[in-house]
Design goal:
The structure is a single chain. This protein has six helices and four strands; from the N terminus they run αααααββαββ. By secondary structure, the protein is an alpha+beta fold. It has a single domain, classed as Alpha-Beta Plaits. Strands 1-2-3-4 form a four-stranded mixed beta sheet. The longest helix has 16 residues. The N and C termini lie far apart (51 Å).
């Protein structure tokens, strides 16, 4: 264990970690904002909600076109609906919606800007 810790302190390892974190900063901040919002809810923490949130964030992160998107700021789950805080002019919202609707337990996807209009619903 001490050897592994020493390896992390190696300047080359630190540089590699910082480079990786910088390249994935949009994902890291999106995960942080989304999970922090989920954990600050007044209701008790539901393991099922956290599991669903993790699946949603993992689906976004695993898609190469969506993972580094600076336009997508935060993801929130309200019941069976995913609410996205996203730039309203972002052209990848339909692709993201279709990707998230494939997740079990998600029936609707909508942006915060479109909450007044009809959300994207699962067709099955």
């Amino acid at each position: 264990m001490p050897r592994r810790f020493t390896t992390l302190l190696n300047p080359l390892s630190r540089t590699a970690l910082f480079t990786l974190a910088w390249n994935r900063r949009h994902d890291i901040f999106r995960w942080g904002r989304s999970l922090a919002t989920e954990l600050q809810r007044p209701e008790s923490i539901s393991p099922q909600r956290l599991y669903t949130m993790t699946k949603v964030l993992a689906a976004i992160t695993s898609d190469e076109g969506l993972s580094s998107a600076k336009e997508l700021k935060q993801v929130r789950i309200e019941g069976d609906t995913v609410v996205l805080r996203v730039d309203p002019n972002w052209s990848r919202v339909p692709h993201l919606s279709q990707r998230l609707l494939q997740i079990k337990g998600i029936d609707q996807v909508m942006t915060e800007a479109d909450r007044e209009t009809s959300p994207t619903e699962r067709t099955s």
